[in-house]
Amino acid sequence: MRFSMSNYKVGPTAKGWGHGWSTDRSKDQSRVKADRSGTKVNVHKRIAPLVDILLDESERRGYRFNPKTCGGYVNRAIKGTQRPSNHSWGLAVDLNWDRNPENFHGVLKTDFPAWMVPLWNRYGFAWGGHYRGRHKDPMHFEFMGAPADADDMLAKARREILQRKPIPQQGKPPQAAAQRYTVKSGDNLSSIASHLKVGGGWNALYQRNKAVIGPDPNKIKPGMVLTVP
Ligand SMILES: [Zn+2]
Questions:
Q1: How far is the CA of 74 from the centre of ligand 1 (A)?
Q2: Is CATH 3.10.350.10 what the domain over 179-228 is classified as, yes or no?
Q3: How much distance in Å is there from the Cα of 2 to the middle of ligand 1?
Q4: How many CB atoms lie within 10 A of CB 187?
Q5: Domain segments of the chain: what residues?
Q6: Is CATH 3.40.50 what the domain over 13-162 is classified as, yes or no?
Q7: CA of 205 to the centre of ligand 1 (A)
């Protein structure tokens, strides 16, 4: 890879992919399919054979995509900004968005098995669940390389996956399935409970986190990490 897997400051244009949103790049896209579930997504043709291998490998290992909750190319800006989304080049896929929801509250909810993120990382796709800060986008994988990297990663995937060599573990696995919430200034337990739709409300949240919060449920402090029941 010619570019860092964690540097989001260098965008696809600087990497040689041309302009994204609002340029219409639909002619650069090609449709790939996860064979077991029949899930189809449109992605840039230069990464399409690689995405095809990764979708199939993910399903071969036992994970299933839902055709109704996956997507790739969309000509749009990043939500709430005027900056092009990686989806507008066809360089990103959103996988099972219902079970891996994006949010801006630091909550990481994912149903991906432990091997899934390292698998995609290994071939140049960064995971939105690894974003720093409160924005977490665990459905989202984006290709971080230049066009020539796509070819290199494809060659590597063909060598390692299609020829079934064992793949060394690499990269950070997703955090445990439990959701966490970091208290921010102005929060109280009932506002958090209603915001995160906690069954049982503030009291359930308190009971689950008594060890962290202490005897007084009104005394929560910014920076405390709560487990969401
Ligand atoms: Zn996305």
A1: 9
A2: yes
A3: 22
A4: 17
A5: 13-162, 179-228
A6: no
A7: 30
